[in-house]
Specification:
mainly alpha, three-stranded antiparallel β-sheet, 21 helices, elongated, disordered N terminus, TPR-like_helical_dom_sf, Pentacotripeptide-repeat region of PRORP domain-containing protein, repeat, PPR_rpt
Length: 509
Amino acid sequence: MASAYAFAPSSTELNFSFRSSISPQRYRHFVPGAHSGFWAKTSPRIINHQNPSSSFVVPKRPSKNWELRSFNSVELDRNVTSDDEDEMSEGFLEAIEELERMAREPSDILEEMNERLSAKELQLVLVYFAQEGRDSWCALEVFEWLKKENKVDKETMELMVSIMCGWVKKLIEKGNEVGDVVDLLVDMDCVGLKPGFSMIEKVISLYWEMGMKERVVVFVEEVLRRGYGDADDGEEDGHKGGPTGYLAWKMMVDGNYRDAVKLVIDLRESGLKPEVYSHLIAMTAVVKELNEFAKALRKLKGFARAGLITELDEENVRLIEKYQLDILADGVRLSNWVMQEGSSSISGVVHERLLAMYICAGRGLEAERQLWEMKLVGKEADGDLYDIVLAICASQKEASSIARLFTRIEVASSLRKKKSLSWLLRGYVKGGHYDDAAETLIKMLDLGLNPDYLDRAAVLQGLRKGIHRSGNVETYLKLCKRLSDASLIGPALVYLYMKKYKLWVIKML
């Protein structure tokens, strides 16, 4: 015959025959060990019901990377031609026949024919039973036996991983229940199949890329409910990641920040235990949502100033404040959960996230508190963050906070002093506190620091507008005199018209 046997038509046609189709003689069962949470150190146990004493334990190890690492796919489209047939031993054909008959345990058959089968023939046995309509569970049992006999080389592992990925993809495409997909992952773990990437993340990516957003959430819920997962090491501070964190990260990458936050909170409130690292991912999503919200709000106010839209009324202002407060409340809840369940080593990361949240929301007092909290746990914030918080506090004229933050400036270098005082000045300008901004400019001049031109111009312009409202020119004249003495402005003619007395007051600086 030109083609005696045809193995595995294609990876897309692979199908997994579930345990309902397995003969009672070869039925195996996954028994999860007791666990106290998602990351409990348990090992799945494969039990042979005919001989319980022959069970063995496969330790579960998390993989090492957030990113899915691609593997070298093994071509499953393979036809056994007459040339290949000549290379096959009678033992191979006999093994296929015995395994198809299902009269004995596959391990017993393979043990008996071990010496008569080559490594290539054992791989072909795997491919044969991975075909559509074959007893796919037999492929897993064959791989299990190969693993126990230390006969799984790199090529065989890649072959089985390719077969398994084909099964998983087929289940998802056909719309099978999420529980079926998790069952298959459990079976994979039971037989000792350890790909070089996270299969849970692979499944999440498949669901996500196929647009099955609701189904992928159900999948993560099922994984957490069973306490199963091959979660990866997190990218930050060595903390563990997992299915919840990975899905939240996928949502965040797509810009669905609120969905990422809602995912973690909903899972937590439903009684499940998302991994600690997922809470940090959700807190990052809170920061990004607050940042995007602040950008949108600035644009809205800009349109209002330009007369393109009407000014925001009280109801709209109230809704805006409520939305921001709700987001902040979610971030605080997440931080509290991390503090309760996480190790002390991540306290600094939590306070760092909270600091970013309050900065984006423009909350000066709360942001300042997080700076000191970070310092207490041994995580020093960058100097620029101190300056940003100083500017926020200045815009809100929080005198006590400004005084505390200003203590750092007094012992700083000249370059650092100028940078911090410039931030302080800009904060006053943003808040409309031009008298305080003028005092800051004068302080910079006293220290021998030359303020930037735009900063000087902004303060002078603000003071001029204030003169028209209050008639107070003292601060303006004092600042002009100091700037003139420092040769930072040219000769100036200051004039004031008092309408009541029809009097012009003119002074040359």
